[in-house]
Task: structure prediction
Amino acid sequence: EAQVTQNPRYLITVTGKKLTVTCSQNMNHEYMSWYRQDPGLGLRQIYYSMNVEVTDKGDVPEGYKVSRKEKRNFPLILESPSPNQTSLYFCASSPSMNTQYFGPGTRLTVL
Amino acid sequence: SQQGEEDPQALSIQEGENATMNCSYKTSINNLQWYRQNSGRGLVHLILIRSNEREKHSGRLRVTLDTSKKSSSLLITASRAADTASYFCALGKYGGSQGNLIFGKGTKLSVKP
Result:
């Protein structure tokens, strides 16, 4: 089944403890992206990648890192999480930067 | 802001009625897309309309795009309770170094049985 998977789906952590949210797609898509969704603010793009080893900042990249070493994986790294990064995170992939296929989301709480 | 802005923010209708949501934007676009999100879940792509298209249909969905007014509308005909969700417009902008898809804040649709 064609899908985008994210892990973990739920995470509660403490300020400053490094964490990684994994994202994997099995559709051989070149384009992948991370978004965060906050009430009243909609979805905002954090980082995107047009291909392996090619990444670029979205609208809200501060406090996040990404890497794209393989086509199927696009992990999101929070080196030192803070409470303002508490949010619902979505990974998405696309064959052509048109239709995007979203993962199920990761709900992150930073205490 | 480069975001699309949906209007209304919330819409409540009875099953069988039509639902219309609007999206206005300020920037130039390559395409405009509509997505649906059931509560707290991933977004699902509904339809894409390119900047040189004026209208597109998909099942009970009809999307229009007026680039001169920088606006789009999504019409859901004969709505069902299962259409209850949030609907987002997303502006497709790329060329050069850009690769962004910029989402609006969404319209929350409630369809009462």
Summary: The mean pLDDT of chain B is 90.
